[in-house]
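not sure who needs this but someone in the group chat was asking about MFS transporter from Agromyces sp. G08B096 so here u go. i didnt clean anything up, its just raw.
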Amino acid sequence: MSDTAAVGFRSERGPVLIALMLTTGLIAIDATILATAVPSVVGDLGEFDQFPWLFSVYLLAQAVSVPIYSKLADTFGRKPIVLIGVGLFLLGSILCAVAWNMGALILFRVIQGLGAGAAAPMTMTIVGDLYTVAERAKVQGYIASVWAISSVVGPALGGVFSQFTSWRWIFLVNIPLCLIAGWALLRFYHEAVERRRHRIDYAGAALLTVGLTAIILGLLEGGNAWAWSSIQSIGCFAVGAIALVAFALVERRAAEPVLDLAIFRRRLISSTTLVSLGIGALLTGVTSFVPSYLETSIGVVPLLSGLAVAALTLGWPLSASLSGRLYLRIGFRATVVLGAVIALVGSIALAVIAPFPSPWLVAAVAFVMGFGLGWTAAPSLIAAQASVDWSERGVVTGTNAFARSAGSALGVAVFGSIANNVIASNGGVANATTIIPASAAVFIATAVIALLMLAAAAWMPRDRVISAEERAEPAADAV
C-alpha cells in the first residue's frame, strides 16, 4: 500500500473506511435513538421505574468489556473482535425488538452493550493501524461526522418510529446496518497477525470485570436507585475495590496481562487517559442536564432542547477534521492544550448564562465546547496511538475509550448528586424555580472538570513538530 495514498471513499482503503463508519454509526445512533422513545416503551411494557436501567446496563456492559476486548485484539487481531462486536450488537438488536417485558428488554440491552464494547474502540484501533499519523486526523473527521449526523438523525428516527409505527423499529433498523457493516469488514478488511501461542489471563479478566462492574454500577445507581449511604452502594464500592486490588496483584505475575499496568508509568499514556476521562464527564454535564434545564425553566419543547445540545456534536467534527493540520505544525500537546482552553471557555460561559436560559445561547456555547473538544479528543488519542506499536495499540485505544465511559459514569453520579442536593435545599421539587440554581451548580462543576482536563493536557510531555518523513510513516500491513 502506498503511504501517500489518498484518504477518502475512492481511495484503496475507502471500502474499509466506509465499513468503519457504518460500524461507528450503529453505536452512535443507538446512543440517542432510544431516549425519545422511552414514553412509548413504557406505555407498551409498563414498569416505568425500571426504564433507567435500559441506559445504565448498556453503558455498564460497554465500559467493562472494552479493556478485555482491547487485549484480545492485540493478541488475536482486530478483525475477529470487531466482527464479534457487530454480531453481538445484531443479536442484541433482534432480541430487543421482540422483548416481551421490561426485564427482557433490559437483559437484551446488556448484549447490545457487549457488542458496542468491541465495535466502538476497534474502529479507532483499526484507523490507527491503517493510516499514517498525518492521515489519521482526516479520518477522525470522517468518523466524527458520523457522530454529528447521528446526534440529529437518532432522536428524529426515535420520534418517528414511536409516533407512526412502533418503538421496536428502533432496534429493527440496526439489522440491515449490521449486516452491511459485517459484510464490508469481511470483504474488504484484511490484516496480518503474527500467529503464536498465547497464555490467556483468565484470572485478570475475571477480576477486572467484577471490579469495574461493581464500581461503575455504584457510580451509576448511587443516589438514583439507592442512597449513597445504603448497603448497596457500600457493597458495590467495597467489592469493586477488593477486586481491583486483587487484579493489580494478579497482573504483576501474569505472563500476558489483560492490562499491563506498566503502561501508566508512561506520562503520555497517563495524561491522555486523564484527558479522556475529563471529556466523558464534560459530555455528560452538557447532554444530560441541558435538556431538562431548558425544558423545565422556560418550557422549551424537547426537539429544540435536543438541537441545542446537538450543536456540541456539530462543532466537534469540524475541529476534529482540522486538527491534523494544527498538530502537524505545533505538535500534539499544544493542540490538545488549545482545545482544552476553548472547552474551558465554553464551560465557563455555560455557567455564566445559566440564570438566563435561552436555547440559542446554549447552542452557541455548546458549539464552542464541541469545537474545543474536537481539538482535544482526536489529537490526544492519536498521540497515544502513535507512541506504541501494533501489539499495544489496541490496549492503548481501549484504555482511552474506557476512560471516556468511566468519565461519563462519574459525571452522571457527581452532577446528579449536585443537582439533587440543590433542589432538595430549595423545596425538593424540580420546577422552574429550582432547576436554574441546580443547573447553574452543575455547570460550575462542569467548568471545574474542564479546568482539571486542561491541567491534564498541560501535563502531556512536550513533543516536537512531526517531520515530513514521520508524517508518511508506513501504515500497518493491513488493507
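also The chain is about 80% helix and 0% strand. if thats useful
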